[in-house]
Design goal:
about 350 residues, alpha/beta, Rossmann fold, 2 domains, five-stranded parallel beta sheet, 14 strands, about 40% helix, elongated
């Protein structure tokens, strides 16, 4: 494989990297950027040129970024998309113009079928929804559920997958309420769900909304087990802001095993430990660079290279992709108890 995929050693290696430097999840996008910039520094290749675009968790901005990469800068290797809306917007352009795209944080199950040139280093939400549903039914002995979900490209399929998994495990979904990504009070929706008297509520909302939901569940004195969307719980500042509101909350999360040398070098460069997104930002850049250095303009070669990886030593995890370009990451269930995150299932 490696000998078949080679490129001119003097050829410039150009990468287009989109991430959210402003907007609702900029705190994660900034960590992704830092991880990518650490990778650039460690690669230390004078041929490498990386162009960053701020996509603000917006499909429209992601489309603009891809058009800039493809039509103005003539870039064949792109990545970094954090939000599902960005990756889903970027994917058709990548497919149409034979451009490789590695999403960094997009987790919607829909991305698995976005095309042969699309990969991602954050696992699909499908596994999270299935795992948390199975655990709640089989280990917590819960049988009735409700869902409060944000009406977005990641929320809708995640809620659907969870609903299906609940049914497959012999439990019942009693109610579902959808909210907007900008909504800052959920009392009406929570009261509607309360009327169904569920034993548990699966909360699928943005990081900026999760503390409000937990507070309002407590204020309304809802007697439910709370299952939450993992990335929102793990986002920067959420645990500090939520405090005791998180006690008793369960969430599924990828079992990332950040490489000790990455954590050390990140801390030296930035004076802080890496936050959520940093290690996958690093891995996205390294994978794009490695594929481009090996294959040049031959995107079919790059795809074969990525699909052929068997234990690539990433900063976030040991990386393997399935035939859909989805990274194969084990997951675990975490319960928050008195401020401590305790792994209860893996």
């Amino acid at each position: 494989m490696l000998s078949a995929c080679t490129t001119d050693s003097e050829e410039t290696i150009t990468i287009g990297f989109m991430t959210d430097l402003t907007g609702p999840v900029a705190f994660v996008g900034e960590e992704i950027r830092k991880g990518a910039e650490l990778a650039i520094a460690e690669i230390n290749d004078s041929r490498l040129r990386v162009y960053f675009e701020d996509t603000q968790c917006s499909g429209r901005e992601a489309t603009n970024a891809m058009n800039t990469f493809i039509h103005i800068r003539d870039i064949r290797y792109t990545g970094g998309s954090l939000c599902s809306s960005e990756a889903l917007a970027a994917a058709p352009l990548a497919q149409q113009h034979s451009v490789l795209h590695i999403a960094t944080g997009a987790s919607t199950p829909e991305l698995s079928h976005a095309g042969e040139h699309i990969f991602r280093v954050w696992p699909s939400d499908a596994r999270e929804a299935q795992l948390i549903a199975e655990y709640a039914v089989t280990e917590l002995s819960l049988s009735t559920f409700a869902v409060l979900s944000v009406n977005t490209e990641f929320g809708v399929p995640l809620a659907s997958t969870f609903s299906q998994a609940i049914a497959e495990n012999g439990a019942e979904l009693l109610g579902k309420e959808m909210i907007s990504a900008e909504q800052n009070t959920m009392r009406t929706e929570l009261l509607r769900l309360q009327q169904h008297n569920p034993e548990a509520i699966y909360v699928i909302v943005n990081p900026s909304q999760i503390v409000t939901v937990l507070r309002q569940i407590r204020e309304l004195e809802l007697d439910v087990t709370v299952l939450a969307y993992g990335p929102s719980i793990q986002a920067a500042g959420v645990k500090e802001s939520a405090g005791k509101l998180l006690d008793g909350v369960y969430y599924a999360t990828p079992h990332l095993q950040e490489r000790a040398s990455f954590v050390e070098q990140f801390s030296i460069k930035y004076g802080q430990e890496p936050g959520l997104g940093a290690s996958v930002g690093y891995d996205t850049l390294v994978l794009l660079y490695t594929a481009a250095a090996l294959c040049g303009a031959d995107i079919s070669c790059a795809r074969e290279y990525l699909l052929g990886l068997d234990g690539f030593p990433g900063a976030s995890q040991v990386i393997r992709f399935d035939t859909f370009g989805d990274v194969q990451t084990p997951a675990q269930i975490v319960r928050v108890d008195r401020g401590e995150s305790l792994v209860v299932f893996e």
